[in-house]
Amino acid sequence: MKTLLFLLFLFLINVAHAHFKMDKDDRKVIRKEIIIEKDSDEDDGGSRSRFSHSHSSSSSSSSSSSESRERWHPKRPRKPSRPSRPPAAKPKCEENWYTSYRPQGIWCLRVGIGHLDYHQAQAQCATYGGVLSGIQNDWERQLIANESVRQLIPHNVNIAGVWLGALHVDGTNTFAWNDGFTTGTEGMFMGPGQPDNALGDARGPQNCLQLIVMTPNYWNAPDKWQTFNRLIDDYWCHFAHDPPQRMYACGKRGPPVTSG
Ligand SMILES: *[C@@H]1O[C@H](CO)[C@@H](O)[C@H](O)[C@H]1NC(C)=O
């Protein structure tokens, strides 16, 4: 009898111990869970609700370890660490316009083809809400030249003069961009000997600028323009025949650059 009682006593102690241990382990799990939630989740609302969920489980449950574990490890898969949000898309110019991200802001560019002199080309750009464009840098020069070539090829024309937004500065042998936005002289890629203003020419000074562009086919039969590939020449504003194919580069302000 005494032995039996003793055995019963041992058994009870064992059960109590097991129970207590389970409880401790569970609490450890809970604490871990809470720490993980706090560390991995920047989303306030989500973390708070999950936090209180784990917390309430800890206070109410103590019976079955496997059951409570299931509750503390809900089936919903752990969110993979959130990929850093993709940078907000840079604002772009509207359809039919290229976007140039200049230091001073966004400038939109488009190229057109047509037998126009400088003044007519300005008027044409105005119908698009723009003006003849200056060239801010080499990227814009290549952009305008590339697009001009793209438009020339289906016309089977190998060379063109592209009107730019610039005028001769009186009393100097220099030019200045006049589109109200292009700055500096980085984009003034002058051809050899230019600008010459056609000094002494009976037709008067050359007060406008054209960018000379050639298609790949041009090189099958190069002419006097061959040293002007993608370079600028000054030209008479009211003429439109050298080279005979006329084009124009229009520009206008783009959407504001948003911060962040
Ligand atoms: C112009 O075209 C060349 C050759 O296809 C290309 O490498 C370059 O990136 C283009 N530049 C621009 C600004 O479009």
Q: Can you put this structure into words, describing what you see?
A:
This protein has 260 residues and is of the alpha+beta class. The protein has helices at 2-40, 44-60, 65-72, 118-127, 138-152; strands at 98-102, 105-113, 131-132, 159-163, 166-168, 175-177, 208-214, 232-235, 246-253. The strands form two sheets. Strands 1, 2, 3, 4, 7, 8 and 9 form a seven-stranded mixed beta sheet that branches. Helix 1 packs parallel to helix 3 (65-72). The longest helix has 39 residues, at 2-40. The protein is elongated. The N and C termini lie far apart (82 Å). The relative contact order is 0.15. 2-acetamido-2-deoxy-beta-D-glucopyranose is lined by residues 139, 142-143, 146.
List the helices and strands and how they pair.
Elements (H helix, E strand, L loop, with lengths): L1 H39 L3 H17 L4 H8 L25 E5 L2 E9 L4 H10 L3 E2 L5 H15 L6 E5 L2 E3 L6 E3 L30 E7 L17 E4 L10 E8 L7
Parallel strand pairs: 4-9
Antiparallel strand pairs: 1-2, 2-9, 3-9, 4-7, 5-6, 7-8
Helix pairs in contact: 1-2, 1-3
The structure holds 2-acetamido-2-deoxy-beta-D-glucopyranose (NAG).
